[in-house]
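User: Modeling request: complex.
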Amino acid sequence: MSDTPAPRHIPDRLDKPLSSAIFSWEALLVVIAVLIFAVNSFASPYFLDPWSLSDLTFNFTEKGLIALAMALLIISGEIDLSVAAIVALASTMMGMAVQAGAGTPVLVLIGIVVGLGCGAFNGLLVTRLGLPSIVVTIGTMSLFRGIAFIILGDQAYKGYPESFAFFGQGYVWWVFSFELALFLVAALIYWFVLHRTSFGRKVFAIGNNPVACQFSGVRVGRIKFILFCLTGLMSGIASVLITSRLGSTRPSIAQGYELEAITMVVLGGVSILGGAGSILGVVLAAFIMGLVTFGLGLLNVPGIVMSIFIGLLLIIVIALPIVWRRLREGRFA
Amino acid sequence: MKNFLKYREIWLLAGIVVLIGLISTRFPGFADLANLRQVFNDTSILMILALGQMVVILTRSIDLSMASNLCFTGMVVAMLNAAHPAIPIPVLIAIALFVGLVLGAINGFLVWRLNIPSIVVTLGTLTIYRGATFVVSGGAWVNADQMSPGFINFQRAAFLGLPVLSWIALAVIALFFLVMTRTAIGRSIHAIGVNPTASVYAGIDVGRTKFIVFCISGMIGGLAGYLWVSRYVIASVEVANGYELNIIAACVIGGISIAGGIGSVGGAVLGALFLGIISNALPVINISPFWQMAISGSAIILAVVLNARGERRQGRIILRKAEAA
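Assistant: Request completed. Predicted assembly structure:
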C-alpha cells in the first residue's frame, strides 16, 4: 500500500503554466520561422511580394499534406517510407486513365482510391502479419514505384484535361492557392482529430505503450490500419495536386518526398520514437522548410545546397534542446 | 541435418541456387563459372556496403547516410586523383577510408553523445553529405579522361583469376566474419541488439559500441566510394542516389532483423548476391530492366514475411529508445 491516497479527481488535461507554452517546441519553431522570414526579407527585395509568398507555399503544401498523416503514424510508433512511391503509382494510374479518356472527376477519384488502396496494403502487412513497418514500407516503396516504372518505362503521360489543372495551379481567392487552402483545412481536421477526439488520444497512447493499450481495450491493430490508410489517402491527394501542377507523369515523380515529409514531421517536434507530437508543430515545420527553400532559391542557391540547410536544421533543432538541457544540468548539478 | 536446416542462410542459398537454375532455363550461359564470377564482381560493392550496414542494424540502429557518404568520398578521391595524379592508389584508398571514417564518426557521435535516434541523425546527414559533395565539386563531374589510368585500372587488374575488386570484397567478408564471430566487439554488437539493458549490466558500453559501428559503416562507405567511382568511371553529385535503400534491402533479404540482434555475415553477403543476380539476369533473359525495382520490392516483402515467421517478436524496435543511458 502506498501512502498517497488515490486522487479523487483526475483532470482531463493538466494545467499548463504560461512558461511551458513559452519554452515549448512550437515556440522555438515560431522563433526560427520569424528569423528566417526576417533574414529572407532583408536578403532579397522580391521576398515580401504577396505573389512570391504565394509561390513559396507550393514548396511545402503537397509534402505537408502527407506529413500531416505521417505525423499521426509516427506518433503511433510506425512509419511509412512508401508515400512518395504511392504518389508515383497514383499519378501513373491517373495517366493511364487520361489515355483512356477519363474526365477530371474520375481522375481525382482514381488518385484517391489508388492512394487509399496502397495505404491499406501497407496497413494489412504491418497489422495482420505483425511486420516491422520500416522494412515493409521499404519493400512496398520499391514495389509501388517499380509498378510505375513497369507501366511507364522512360515514357511520360501527358494530356491532362484543362479543368484538372485547377488543383495544382488554381487560386481560391487572390493569392491563396487551392493547394494552400486544402493544406490548411486538412491541418485543421488533423489537429481536431489528434488533439480533440478519443481517436487522437488512442494514437498517443499506442505510441507510448501498445501493450497497455491492447489490455485497455484499444484496438491497436485497427487504429494502426486506419492510420496507414490515412497516410495512403493523403499521398493519393498529394498525387492529384502534383500531377495537376506538373501536368505530366513520369515514374520518377516525387522522388525523395518520403524523406522530406519525415523531416517535416520530426522537425515539427514529433518524437520518432512515438508517443509525442503536435499538428501545430508539423504545420510550422512545413512553413519553415518552405521558407528556407524558397528564400535560398531567391538567392540563387542551388537545390542541393538547400538540402544541406534542411539537414542541418533537422539535426540542430533536435540537438539544441538536448545540449541546452545538458548544459543547464551540468551547471546546476 | 535438422540443425543445419534451421540456418536462414541455407534457405537463402537454396533460393539463390533455384533462382540461378530458373534463369539458366531461359539463358543457359548464366550458370557458367565465368559468368557467376562476373556477377560476384558486379555485386562486390553492394556486398561490402551491406556488411557495413549489417553491424549498424544489429545494434538496433540504421545508417541511411551510407550512399551519400559513398558519393562524397568518391568525389573527394576522384578530385584528388584528377588534381594530383601522382598520389599512389593505396594512399587514395587510405584517404577514402579516413574520410568515410570521419563522416561515420559524425553520425556515431550524434547518436552516442546526444542520444538522437540514428534514423533522425542519418536522415539529416543523408542530405548534408550529398549537398557537401555539390559544394566541394561545384556541381562539376569528374570524368574518365580526368582520372589517371592507375586509378581506373587498379580494381580491374586480374590477380589469381579474379579482379582485385572481387578480392577486396572477399577480404572484407573474411574480416567481418572474423570480427563478428571471434572478437569481443563482435559479441558486443550482437548483444546490444538482443538486449541493450542486459548488455549494460554485462559491462558493455552501449553508446561507445554504437559509435564504433557507425565508424565501421562510415569507413565501408568511404571504401565503397573509391570502388564505385573507379568502377563506373564517373564522380558526380548523383552517384548512388537512393542506393541506401538497396543496401538495407540486401540486409533485409539476408535475414538481418531490423529489430536488431539477428543477422550474420553470410546473410548480408547472400542478400546482396540475390539482388545482384536479379539485376544481372534481367537483361540477359529479355525482361525490361524497369521490372527490377518491383521485383526487388516483392523480394523484400517476401523476405520479411518469411523471416517474421521465424522470429515472432514485436517489430518497430528500431524506433524504440534503447533502454540504456
